[in-house]
Amino acid sequence: MITALSFRPNAIVALLAAGLTLGSTIAVADYRSDIGYTKLQQDLGVSIPTGAGVVVSQVEASLWVDLQLVWLPDVTNGEFNGKVITNPSNAGPGLYSGHATAVGQAFYGTVTSIAPAITSIAAYSVEHWQSSGFLRTFVGVGGLQPKSSTSRIKNHSVVWPNASGEVYVLRRTDWVVETDELIQVVAVNNGFGGSSTVPLLASAFNVIAVGLSSGQHDVGSVALDTTYTAGRTRPDIVVPASGTSIATPYVSAAAALLVQLGNSNPGLSTDPVSVSMTNRAGVLVRNAERSEVIKAALMAGADRVTHNSAPYPTNLGVYRGTVQNQTANGLDKRYGAGQLNIRNSYWIIAGGEQNSTEDGNVAANVSSRGFDYDPHFGGSNSTN
Q1: Residue in 350, 295, 353, 267 with CA at minimum distance from that of residue 44
Q2: Tens digit of pLDDT per residue, the chain (384 long)?
Q3: Is 209 helix (H, G, I), strand (E, B) or coil?
Q4: b/e per residue, 110-135, with b = 16+ CB within 10 A?
Q5: DSSP category for residue 10
Q6: Is the model's pTM score more than 0.90?
Q7: Quick one: which of 121, 22, 20 has its CA closest to 64?
Q8: Residue 50 backbone phi and psi in degrees, to 5
Q9: How far separated are the first and last CA of the chain, in Å rounded?
Q10: Strand 208-212 relative to strand 183-187: parallel, antiparallel, unpaired?
Q11: Distance CA 189, CA 137 (A)
């Protein structure tokens, strides 16, 4: 039974350097250039990460098609050749969701995605995922812990109300991220820059909340209780796209590249206390691929001045240009940390763990790129 919240209060990550629509059009070449992927390809050539070996999940709204609820991507789509898309929510045969298919193309499609080598995908309906399928949210009765998962990233291109259980869903989502290093990338609601009224899942603390570079989305967290309050910055990061349904898997794919980088290069994780953890599903997670390291690297690498291309050429307005858009944590109310730049974020992780003097690095020589993960505050070697 879950009895406490887990918001990463005892972890440090220091960085050095640099309504959802059913149909979405995707301009592959343009968005890749806009988010720094094309330049990263030029940097790395054939050694660029592809998402290989990263297990993921996709959580979708259930849609009525021919009197049947559907949420699976179309497994016959050519972009999904060679991929294993499992069906833990037990959809009926033969009918597929066009929304889920477009999201899947952006997340792990062989042509559209920047992480085309992802091959293992679990596809959930959001109703099943939040209840018996994964979170095991049963309002007012406590219940079992959420299930474990071998997935490292879950994409949620869906927002939904659950007035009687929103706090329970958020608490369990935050607990899963903290406990299992299970990265949750979530859409904020499409809108016109007004305050959000839909808390699931963008009002969770530990998720990566995604909006649009155009600013056409809801902002801020939703007031639910004394813990989940209004006024926190949402989204965390933005992407040029037609809607948050497509922006979110762009960020999920970027996270997959960073997870692969951190997992396949153990030398990037060097903390003297702990270089990794093993989660409840038995998955080894190195420091360089922990959920808060990936989130921090994505946010630290984000662009605050953009030069976007058609068909979504709208650039960020002047970052923190007015008092109304200046948040207390130094971010922008509309854009969070700014627009996704996978090249910047890649080089932050590739810089490796840069341990401080307090971590036993007597010389304290740190690079201009890198990160430092410390699992706990406190102790004789800590500073205030």
Answers
A1: 350
A2: 333 344 444 454 555 443 334 344 455 667 999 999 999 999 999 999 999 999 999 999 988 777 678 899 999 999 999 999 999 998 666 789 999 999 999 999 999 999 999 999 999 999 999 999 999 987 665 678 999 999 999 999 999 888 778 999 999 999 999 999 999 999 999 998 889 999 999 999 999 999 999 999 999 999 999 999 998 999 999 999 999 999 999 999 999 999 999 999 999 999 998 999 999 999 999 999 999 999 999 999 999 999 999 999 999 999 999 999 999 999 999 999 999 999 999 999 999 999 887 777 766 677 889 999 987 765 544 443
A3: strand
A4: bebbbbbbbbbbbbbbbbbbbbebbb
A5: T
A6: yes
A7: 22
A8: -125, 0
A9: 34
A10: parallel
A11: 22
Planar angle of CA 76, 77, 78, nearest 5 degrees: 110
Question: What is the H or E stretch that residue 156 is in?
Answer: strand 153-156
List the one residue out of 364, 257, 372 whose CA is nearest residue 11: 372
Rounded CA-CA distance 195/233 in Å is: 11
C-beta separation of 129 from 160 below 8 A: no
Return the half-sphere exposure (C-beta side, CA atoms, 13 A cut-off) of residue 224. 26
From CA 24, how far away is CA 41, in angstroms rounded?
25
Contact 207, 185 (CB under 8 A): yes
Q: Which of 167, 201, 157 is nearest to 19 (CA)?
A: 157
- Identify the burial level of 33 via C-beta atoms within 10 angstroms of its C-beta, where 0-12 means exposed, 13-18 middle and 19 or more buried: middle
**Maximum separation of any 2 CA atoms in the chain, in Å:** 67
Among 255, 285, 239, 270, residue whose Cα is nearest residue 359 = 270
Answer whether 61's CB lies under 8 Å from 158's CB.
yes
Burial of 267 (0-12, 13-18, 19+ CB in 10 A): exposed
- Mapping DSSP to helix (H, G, I), strand (E, B) and coil, where does residue 36 land? coil
Q: How far is CA 184 from the centre of its chain?
A: 5
